[in-house]
Specification:
single chain; 55 residues; mainly alpha; 2 helices; rod-shaped; Apolipoprotein acyltransferase
Length: 55
């Protein structure tokens, strides 16, 4: 669940970031994909850490 939330939040933040710097639609898609990838990797690490701490 954390992974999916991180993916969506990352895509949203990437889309907004590209819009702030004046990017067109292609730039916004690229930023959204990169941010989604970065946030999903971080979310995966958080999920694994929480899973190992609980059990």
């Amino acid at each position: 669940m954390i992974l999916i939330a991180a993916l969506v939040i990352g895509a949203f933040l990437g889309w907004r970031r590209a819009g702030k710097v004046g990017g067109n639609r292609s730039d916004r898609i690229q930023y959204a994909l990169v941010f989604a990838l970065i946030f999903s990797v971080l979310g995966l690490f958080v999920t694994v850490l929480l899973d190992r701490m609980v059990f």
